[in-house]
Design brief:
four-stranded mixed sheet, four-stranded antiparallel sheet, Butyryl-CoA Dehydrogenase, subunit A, domain 3, Butyryl-Coa Dehydrogenase, subunit A, domain 1, 3 domains, single chain
């Protein structure tokens, strides 16, 4: 089958308007807030402006107020939104809400969509995804899931310990992954539950101090202690949580790549502007060979990352699992984006280290991406396993 990566003209126009909106509206707010939105007032301000500009919620269907873009279309628009640290928040496509919306549209009941998806899609509320646990619980290996949910009259009781739950501060609800069958290490037996924030059994332990700060709502440590939810809180079917998670994880990895690629492009733009104007050793910085190599290597990394994202998105839009292509794209992008920001900072010298331009902030924000959504080492292990399995199958024919 031929791979067609051509964007629809309507998508190209939405991407153009998104780029204009981010540069004219969002970046001034980012500069004012030093790259971190610390209040609901900032979120509301940005999202109101995005609605007025007609670029809000590009990923959800028109039924829920969005533009209904497929994964290939999202790649173009999300990259433009990601040109600012606050662009995804403005368009309501920031993690974890964007991934939760994608999953809710795919597997929630009609009642759950009205109760949870609609207010999430409109920006009325925020959400979080509670899967990661402290060691030895679920992390890079989701099958290590140890949080349990037991049947009780009329519903379920959830007990467990979660941490690094992004966006949990101020979230209206959590999608909690809990084990309903088997034991830690088993490949099945997980169930997803919708847990309202006012449930007394879901408790915040602390905010985790991290290198990055721009993901709205922080990273929290939570405890589910005698957290009772009704049967209607089950998202999808019991014991199918790991299967449903794949609906979210592959696309969410790609949307992370899209957003951070925008920051890589902005870092390159800052560095190129500096190289064009800075005079050193009798010439422009950009005329020196080592500077040119860094600029060229940035271009190569950005182009390669974009190509891998588009390939994976095309496969997802074709209904394929795209496990290998999303793993390859995520691993490469996480490392390439870091390289681009790092080279850009180096090109800007002392200015890059200073707070006068945002490259130092960008460097802190992109570094954890090599760990979030699966560390590079875990993805490489999975990539190699698939290659070896393919070899073994071919050898047996």
């Amino acid at each position: 089958m031929a791979v067609d990566l051509t964007q629809d003209p309507a998508v190209e126009e939405l991407a153009r308007r998104t780029a204009q909106f981010v540069r004219e509206v969002v970046i001034p707010v980012e500069e004012r807030e030093h790259g971190v939105a610390r209040s609901e007032d900032v979120r509301i301000e940005l999202q109101r402006a995005a609605r007025q500009a007609g670029v809000f919620a590009p990923h959800v269907s028109a039924e829920f107020g969005g533009h209904g873009l497929d994964m290939l279309g999202r790649a173009a628009v999300f990259e433009q939104a990601g040109y600012s640290l606050l662009g995804p928040l403005a368009l309501n496509i920031a993690a974890p809400d964007e991934g939760n919306m994608h999953m809710l549209e795919a597997i929630a009941t009609e009642e759950q969509k009205e109760q949870y998806l609609r207010p999430l899609a409109t920006g009325e509320v925020r959400s979080c995804f509670a899967m990661t646990e402290p060691a030895p619980g679920a992390g890079s290996d989701p099958s290590a899931l140890s949080t349990r949910a037991e049947r009780v009259p009329g519903g379920w009781r959830i007990d467990g310990h979660k941490w690094f739950i992004t966006g949990a501060e101020g979230a209206a609800f959590a999608i909690c992954m809990a084990r309903t069958a088997g034991a830690p290490g088993d490949q099945g037996g997980a169930t997803m539950f919708l847990v309202d924030a006012d449930n007394p059994g879901m408790k915040t332990i602390r905010h985790i101090e991290t290198l990055d700060e721009s993901l709205y709502g922080g990273h929290l440590e939570l405890v589910f202690d005698n957290c009772v939810v009704p049967d209607s809180a089950v998202l999808g079917a019991p014991d199918q949580g790991f299967r449903y998670a794949q609906v979210r994880l592959g696309p969410a990895r790609m949307t992370h790549c899209m957003r951070w690629l925008g920051i890589a492009q902005r870092s390159q733009d800052i560095a190129v502007a500096r190289a064009a104007e800075r005079r050193i050793f009798g010439s422009r910085l950009g005329e020196l060979g080592m500077a040119q190599q860094m600029i060229a290597d940035n271009e190569i990394d950005i182009a390669a990352a974009r190509g891998l994202i588009l390939q994976a998105c095309w496969e997802l839009d074709q209904g394929r699992s795209a496990s290998q292509s999303t793993a390859i794209a995520k691993t490469f992008c996480a490392e390439a984006i870091w390289r681009v920001v790092d080279r850009s900072l180096q090109l800007c010298g002392s200015l890059g280290v200073s707070g006068d331009i945002p490259l130092g902030r960008f460097l802190r924000e992109v570094r954890p991406f090599r760990i979030y959504d699966g560390p590079s080492e875990t993805h490489r292990w999975a990539i190699a396993r698939r290659v070896l399995r393919q070899h073994d199958r071919a050898a047996q024919r």
